[in-house]
Task: structure prediction
Amino acid sequence: MLLRTKGKPINIEGHLVGKVTRNPDLLDENSFLLIDSFVSELPSKNFMGVLSRQDEYEVKNGENVVFKIPTLDHLTDGDIVSVGNDGNINTLYRVNSFHNTLLATERCNSNCLMCSQPPRDKNDIPIHYQIHKKLIPLIPKDCFELGISGGEPTLMGNLFFDLLSQIKAELPETEIHVLTNGRTFAWNHMAERLGELDYRRLMLGIPVYADYYQVHDYIVQAENAFYQTILGLHNLARYNQRLEVRVVLHKQSIPRLTRLAKYIYKNLPFVEHVTFMGLEFVGYAPHNIDKLWIDPFDYQNELGEAVEFLAGQGMHVSIYNTPLCILPENLWKYARKSISDWKNDYLPECATCTKLGECGGLFTWNLKKHSKHIHPFTS
Amino acid sequence: MQFQNEIKSNEVIVFADASLYSKDSIFKCLYWYGDKFHTNVSFADSGTYRVSLKPISTNQLSNLELELLLQKLERDLIDFNLRDIVTKETQNVRDLLIAKAFSNGEFDEMPPGNVSDPVGFNVNKVAND
Amino acid sequence: MIDAIPDKISRKFKEKDQFDLNRNSQYYLLPFRFHRLTDEKEIIVNEVGDYLILSNGTFESIVKRKLDKEKDKDLYGDLIANFFISEELIPPLIDVLATRYRTKKLFLNYFTGLHIFVISLRCEHTCHYCQVSRVTQNRDLYDMSLSNIDKGIDIMFKSPNPHVTMEFQGGEALLAFDHIKYAVEKAEQIAIEIGKGLTKVICTNLALINEEILEYCKEHDILISTSLDGPKYVHDKNRNKPNASSYELAIKGIELSRKLLGHDRVSALMTTTKLSLDYPTEIVEEYFNLGFQGIFLRNISPYGFALRTDTSKYETEKFLAFYKKALDRILEYNFSGYHFTEDLAKIFLTKILTPFNVGFVDLQSPAGLINGVIVFNYDGGVYATDESRMLAEQKDYTFKLGTLNDDYNDLFFGRKAQEIAQLWANEALTGCSECAFQQYCGADPVHNHATQGDMYGYRPNSDFCQKNMEIIRYLIELMESDSRIKRIFESWAKTATH
Result:
């Protein structure tokens, strides 16, 4: 799935954020006209600009333009893009997707061995914030769910709370799912501040990879991270925040997995959801694959014990990123089709599988590294 | 001088080095024998406790039972001494724990470590309003 | 935001040993307790009831710092993760542990919930083990007067608990049904006015139940709690009713009550007698066949019996054998796929397996008397527990807190309450203070007084201690030896907390 493209900019200053449309009748001051082929005349109304595939473009009314864009096929009417003065066109929101995510920052205070989106040590927070501030009012009010990820979003500091306030005001019906390592919430004032937003549609997804600090800290490559995260979860619970614990399954987390399940129940019984997630072969993971790889087929006992224990205690449990053919049948009811549409794929042999419709499949990048036990169901 | 644990005329006698066994642990141990035995603690010398059990009249024991009793007392003394170490070493943290449990978070510890990234983040500068 | 404190560390990956916060391998002990289970196994239990089963000698290694962080890597991790040891004097998660401790003592948060009104001492049964009730027509002397009901309700609503339970006991409570109606209607009105939750329960042998009473119960959302000691040949021997079968009346009453009120509005309690001890499986099957979700295998009550020391120990052993046989039968039902619980085990298992707790009068610390329950006797006396007023019928007024004419504070925080409070926490009792099962157990000053002659009690020959120690040990042994049983026990514990 293509999410960014680039053309030649004319008159663009800073970053423009707008919806796209091919229908001139729908154009307004917050939208760009998409031009796939030649158009003789522009509509005579106030709109944000033109995104064109044309090789040549002649400016008529001083309009903002990006031209010579290789393709616009990935854009649908209603999608929202940011257009930079460098000609970069990034898709920020796809109207036909249930998996829209705002990238809060690429900065991070952890450095997880299996990070799918490795951090960058550059302060990109102001620019992302400015773009999101323009984006949020344009998102359709019926947007079902919106993710916020990073990097570590809470490194935005005050802006993190400003961003959430704005979303709450603009999109009161939308479920918000923030991925954070939760470490900064170990400082009570951070959790208290979040509590003051009184945001019932907000859910925080926070990773806990072991019950023992050294294993967790090693996985996230940050000293004291385990203690900070657990304290953070407790502070957040104190202010009645809705919480999800996320566990990535790999060679470092599997050995203490059943202990972790008990730890979660005993120490974090207030969490609303516990998710167990298969490893993504992207980002840092290929580099660290020797430290991480265990065939998912080989950890099903540990996974089954952890999942069934937590579910047995009445907790809501899910398994993500794991094809059904790897899971024992008693765990199927926990498997979710979790992978965002634009990064979801199947192996060639899956084509004949009778369970394909129910199966979550693989990450596109996991086609290169997957369980040896994937096989199609034949009846 | 060396003392030998022994069974002597229906009485079980155990010696405990006072530098290794606490007085508290000896009494806590003997408490559990008090319903069936006359218990006694005295000093064999300035550095050694002499601990003895003598069955009360309704509690007649065979030689084998006395042998097992001796062994049980020896083991219990060790166990209660270990328990006593835990109790004493953890007294302060236990008091702290319970004080915290019945407070409202006002005595929370500062979190350990740092949460900054390489660019620089100061969690204490995030306003709390 | 950008601000000071940039973390200078690079993005280069580090090895696991670099995340060891304590490279000199020294550690501190946290409060926990130890018990030998068998010659091979020992158990340690931390301050919030989490346990680890260890091989013999491990406790000594832990205390004497013989643990090797590398060699005993898994155990070391378990001990740190489960709050048995700490690498710092003040463990980094002490506030989490404190929250868990508070959760375990949450029952203290609400104060008295259960208010027992002994609405009449009169009864139409003549049960041989009951030394309390009277067969008489004298209502003036043995029914609770309307003015005492008023005072009882007044005191009940002074409880800080946002939800109170009003339970009518006897004698046979239904002999004074008109007084129950008076009390219910008065309490309902006040509950609405001041916005408190109110649960109403009538304890009855069901001999006098009829459709008219049940219609009233339905209208006023009243729960029925009855007595059922087992099959007919046990129940009728235990519970003598002149010229009738108590069992048949109870069964008919249960059916009628379920029909009119709903299946789950009717519960039953059994009393274990010497006769019951011979019929563990039959009693369980009776409850199962009647469609109950579980059974509460209650200890033989010492009240009215002279149960002391040696006799008591013998009786307790018999009860434990009875209990284990009954529990076996209950587990068989569960193996066949039925959810059928034993409620004493359920209380213990909630404490052993979950981060939560259940308040139960003698299985909590501080004990539930006054904190959780209070009894208003038919004659206006106020007692700490149901057992306390039974002692009073034998002229023992040790646990009489006062009368309904007294001030709330004098009753609940007065001299007598303070005296009892000195020894209602097992954390502070000799024999209990270092007991591994302390967190799972409780304190029962009334029982101690009744069986041993003093409230403090003497653990070496206490039947309370003997019984609870063995049941807890047995439950753990069962779970550790059979993973199916562990699943079953986990599901029981879950139902207690949901």
